[in-house]
TrEMBL record:
It comes from the Bacteria. This is 6-phosphogluconate dehydrogenase NADP-binding domain-containing protein. Pfam families: NAD_binding_2 (PF03446). It comes from Pseudonocardia xishanensis. InterPro entries: 6-PGluconate_DH-like_C_sf (IPR008927), 6PGD_dom2 (IPR013328), 6PGDH_NADP-bd (IPR006115), HIBADH-related (IPR015815), NAD(P)-bd_dom_sf (IPR036291). Keywords: Oxidoreductase. The keyword Oxidoreductase applies. Belongs to the HIBADH-related family.
Length: 277
């Protein structure tokens, strides 16, 4: 029998991912805290569940893309009563590896499996099906959801046991944070050399970065609220990377310093965007 896939978490990244799954014929149902976020999926013929529990009753494989550890645990607790033995939860959220272990522990009595499959790449790559997906968990469970994951990403790789995908993603997020800071510093340096910001922005926009890093960050083409949201998410990611490094006894001081500085730089960009020239 073909698995019926569901999706929880229709934010800036989750919605285009869900739309890709719908386009590929995978998505059966979806749920979001804000019902209006489901409108494009409803138009595409996807069922809209009344609650996470209702979604669990409708689906065999549930993809979850929410903001953090607490949101993940909370929504899985609400999803669990609708799940059956043999069902599978696929975690696309960026969370600590321990959060994956926690929900696996909670779902084990129900015979429900967990795969962590966090994604690298923003909404543009999500729409194009070009995300990078690092998977952690059981080989058979990953292979079971691989066709759906390949609809979402151009690189789908098992990197180890449960939580391993998140470890790769946390390291990638520090790389991302370092790039944010380097771009911010390069823009300032160019201005000091007398290069008009709009000219430098044109070159920065051509860099192969998704989201606000290569383009809107450099130009102010997004509102300050979007940039501030990016700063908050980056702060969460840097904090998680710091905690993971401490747990592993890893020395990530230089990368973490760049990440922390990037958060401040994004806040400065948000202030500039909000202040008319």
């Amino acid at each position: 029998m073909t698995d019926r896939h569901g999706f929880i978490g229709l934010g800036d990244l989750g919605l285009p991912m869900a739309e890709r799954l719908a386009d590929g014929g995978f998505l059966h149902a979806a749920w979001a805290r804000s019902p209006e976020r489901c409108a494009p999926l409803r138009t595409a013929g996807v069922a809209v569940a009344d609650s996470p529990t209702d979604l669990g009753l409708r689906c065999d494989v549930v993809h979850v893309c929410v903001t953090d550890d607490d949101a993940l645990v909370e929504v899985v607790d609400r999803l669990a009563p609708g799940l059956n033995p043999g069902d599978l939860v696929v975690v696309h959220s960026t969370v600590l590896p321990d959060a994956c272990d926690e929900i696996a522990h909670r779902l084990a009595p129900r015979g429900v499996g967990v795969v962590d499959a966090p994604v690298c790449g923003g909404p543009v790559r999500a729409r194009a099906g070009e995300l990078l997906i690092s998977c952690g968990g059981d080989d058979e469970q990953i292979d079971r959801c691989r066709p759906a994951l390949e609809q979402l990403g151009r690189t789908v790789r098992r990197v180890g046991g449960l939580g391993s995908g998140e470890r790769v993603k946390l390291a990638m997020n520090l790389l991302y944070a370092a790039n944010v800071e380097i771009i911010c510093q390069a823009m300032d340096f160019a201005e000091e050399l007398g290069v008009p910001r709009e000219i430098m922005s044109e070159f920065v926009r051509a860099l192969p970065y998704d989201g606000f890093v290569g383009g809107p960050l450099a130009t102010g083409h997004v509102g300050s609220s979007r940039v501030r949201h990016g700063a908050r998410m980056l702060a969460k990611d840097v904090d998680y990377a710091s905690r993971a490094a401490a747990d592993a006894g890893a020395d990530a001081r230089d990368l973490l310093k760049l990440g922390t500085t990037a958060i401040s730089s994004l806040a400065d960009v948000a202030d500039e965007v909000a202040t008319p020239a």
